[in-house]
Amino acid sequence: MRGRPVDHFGRALSFQRAGDFDNALAQYRVLLEQNDANAEVHNNLGLLYQDRNQLDDAIKQFQRAIAIDPRSVKAHNNLGVAYMRSSRPDVAAAEFRVALASDPRNVESLVNLALVQRSGGRIADARNLLRRLESHQLPAL
């Protein structure tokens, strides 16, 4: 009698949320061995590396996610954050703009682009972006 198949993705998320890098990494690797063309797994793996400040590895995973799914707003936003944390504001801004081209109401990408612009001294541009948020219905916290 065979048991139920192991939910590697659910286990990876659980380990990731608990801060257990090694076990989360092991589960994501199993998933990638089964199917390397899973953009969501590559994106989550990028977040795992980013949480450990392994930004080069994170960037590679986000880029792989985007190669699989070029319209992934999450992967573009996350890649932008990794670039921002790597002191590469110009390429970070480009990624946030790509995310916003797909989803102009994406709050994370709007805020992140505003942060990049503010840090670059473009205060008026940052304010204009944040004003766009005023016209959006934001979810209650």
Kindly summarize this structure in a few lines.
By secondary structure, the chain is mainly alpha-helical.
Fill in the keyword field for this structure.
141 residues, 0% strand, mainly alpha
Please give the structural blueprint.
Layout lengths: L7 H10 L3 H14 L4 H13 L3 H14 L4 H13 L3 H14 L4 H13 L3 H12 L7
Helix pairs in contact: 1-2, 2-3, 3-4, 3-5, 4-5, 5-6, 5-7, 6-7, 7-8
Explain this structure to me?
It is built from eight helices and no strands. The model has no long low-confidence stretch (mean pLDDT 91). With 141 residues, it is mainly α.
Give the termini distance in whole angstroms. 46 Å
| Class based on secondary structure composition and strand pairing | mainly alpha
Number of helices: 8
Largest sheet: none
